[in-house]
Amino acid sequence: MTNQMGRILTPDSLPKCLPQATLMVKGHEAILSVPSNDYTFSGKSAEMIQGIFSFLNGTNTVNIISQKTCLASEDIISLLDYLCGESVLIDINNENKGSLTGYQLVELVKQEIVFWRQHINNQIFWEKVHNGTCSKRQILGWGIEFYHYVDAANEYMAAGVAYCRESIDVRQKIAAHYAEESDHGEIFLQGLMKDGLSATLVKKSLPLPSTRALINYLNEVAMESSLVYTAVFSLMQSDGKSFSKIDLTEYYSQLIELYPFAQGMFGSFLKHALIDARLDHQISIFENLYANDEIISHREVKRTFVTVRQLVNCFILYYEYLFEYYGKEDSQLPRRAPQVIDFLLAENKG
Ligand SMILES: [Fe+2]
């Protein structure tokens, strides 16, 4: 039941299962359900998953789970390693991974990204987008905040090139990646214009604090090292599964059907996704640069995971707050600088 990486967890691991995972018992079987799959356990594995499931929240070590459930650590690790390989579970103990080869690090990051994508996709924002219950403000507000995020490539990707301290070859690849992304903000601006927004007002609008926090974080990451900087693209570039032109077109057509006023905006999302597909962005720059035999130190491995997880937090807050802010009927769209009157109750606004 271990994956091709061999053992991933240790007795010190802090296993965290996808928060949306549920466990159902049917006769002698236990079914673990996550959005993308159901895992059926039978016999001893079924008993084990029932015993340990409630402890898989990232706060209990395997040793503690073993003590509380009287199950052997080795058996728990075998079962959890399998779930890790399926990206249903991660070890959130950042101290737990030693130095790794580039291949191993890239593989572990890819597994973890699948985990976090499911978590991000399960946020209320996406549920509302897909069931058609977002307001016009929320959809167009998303378009504006997304424009700010995409256009910020000219900040943080430029920093990624400037602060590269590796070989010329690595810097050239990072620079080429920046060049490919540098004008993508314009695609989203054009889309918003088609939907009736003023390009000048969108460009001048203030990003929400949460959007700015995401961009600021990317700026810091870009200065730290090329390894952690490129690792963030594992999350930000598409996962490669959704790169079929037919699937992309169908997905955005459905969104246009739900939100016909945002035809221009979703047209831009589609156009952008197709450009990324053409540029082979389904293999991230991180994989291109670091999937090799070079040894990556424990410190760098740790920084990679800390960074990816922090970026997940930034994205969750980004979606959460744009949904909240543009959910208010009196919110500015596009935003201008906040004024005191924005925070007064309606009856006091005069
Ligand atoms: Fe892009």
UniProtKB/TrEMBL annotation:
It is an enzyme of class 1 (oxidoreductase). Keywords: Oxidoreductase. Its EC number is 1.3.3.11. Residues 116-229 form the Thiaminase-2/PQQC domain. Transmembrane segments: none annotated. Pfam families: TENA_THI-4. The keyword Glycosyltransferase does not apply. Coiled coil: none annotated. GO terms for molecular function: pyrroloquinoline-quinone synthase activity. This is Pyrroloquinoline-quinone synthase.
